[in-house]
């Protein structure tokens, strides 16, 4: 975003530019020297030269009647024709009167009584889309991208720019303050992906304003021109260039930049609202949680955005079009869990991610694919397994914790060694270890524990598990404390039912996964500092059974699997 100076300060800018470029003669020559063949036009200002060529009167009048505006849309009292009469070096691509612009559009562009909003609109989306800083000549070897004052980038070729051909007799026209090209057409202003999703009326309330609220502006020190310091010792810039950054774009993709190409899979407004209402039920925080409503809104929308963005750079999408992956793809995560997170096969085939779009929108840096059916699996986005590796847990007070690498079981070597945590209490065979688990969502989970065989004692464990949850009033609520009913034969030979606690006994010939049961968690605790969910593992070893069971538990991990109904 560009902040322009007032026309009365042109001498100040020229002085500042000399200071900036005089110390770098090569840069000065690259930007300002002219070695091309002399044209038939006398060397004059851009404004004068453009006025001498017939067939471009409409563009000339638009320049004369449109004022330059600051970043807030306020007219500055100087026109774009004044800019082309300045001493700073520019390149102009002038569209002809017959360039595909309708008469109604020309009337708007050339209206001498524009409102402030019209000055800003015409300047930003039409005139500045045809002007660039510095020298850009065209020829047999010229190609690449050129960035206009509007911030938009157009591909330059020897015979065209942005697909619009040059007037063969009116290009590379040397002017005293720049280069002039005449083109057969006009350079259309396309919104960037960021501009579209934050400005489209149908998305403004449900998505756009919220997404834009994470945007901040910072000064680009390299591209801005300083004029000195004020009385407070602060640097004053007469030509300042502002950079927009956004917390969400840093996380999902730089969809505002013109030098990258992205794709967005965007739900239609109706679908967006329906999916939002469904997913938000998993992000219900306790009422006593600070900003509980804002947290619910934030994480619900972030969940929906998980696989919406795709960097279409060929160096990134190495397997496209056979498959495409979103900007959240992480190869290490996929190898670890063995699941296709953020990967979509054959996106352009019938029924594929992109092919399933009901409509598309071309933007300056990519394409939006609108879908009316939710294409993302909940189990691969937010209803994902929570896994707490025991070897990473070191918060058990009074316990002896030792890491152990399990390389073999019963003499059979494992392909990959597994790290486990040996949990015991010195001098005691009976103990209670409470382990906390964070980042749960609201809803049902199946709780599991994975026990490794104790190769030292070579005996199974006898562990009673219980699951509890600390409610917002700080009262602990037991969710699982399983009891079981056993049938025994008493001394008289009669069958009797005896109720006892459920004890997990592991199979010493393998890593044993034991289901503790299903819990229904009342609140979301995602990204909170303090965990509320706890699994208590109690050793049931005593004097009577110590010869059968080991009191030291070799714990691999605790798992919470979402119950999808």
Features:
alpha+beta; FAS1 domain; Jelly Rolls; 3 domains; six-stranded antiparallel β-sheet; 32 strands; elongated; disordered N terminus
Report on this model:
This protein has 565 residues and is α+β, with helices and mostly antiparallel strands. The protein folds into three domains: 2-183, FAS1 domain, CATH 2.30.180; 193-380, no CATH class; 386-562, Sandwich (Jelly Rolls). It is 21% helix and 33% strand. The chain contains 13 helices and 32 strands. Strands 21, 22, 23, 25, 30 and 32 form a six-stranded antiparallel sheet that branches. Strands 1, 12, 13 and 14 form a four-stranded antiparallel sheet that branches. The protein has a four-stranded mixed sheet with strand order 5-4-11-10. Strand 2 and strand 3 (75-79) form a beta hairpin. The radius of gyration is 34 Å and the shape is elongated.
Total beta-strand segments: 32
Instruction: Let me know the average pLDDT.
Output: 85
Helix fraction?
A: 10-25%
Shape: elongated
| Helical stretch tally | 13
First-to-last CA distance: 49 Å
The Rg value, from CA coordinates, equals: 34 Å
Oligomer: single chain
| Count of structural domains | 3
Structural class label: alpha+beta
User: Uncertain spans, ≥5 residues at pLDDT below 50?
Assistant: 1-38
What portion of the residues fall into strands of 2 or more residues?
A: 25-35%
The major beta sheet can be summarized as:
6 strands, antiparallel
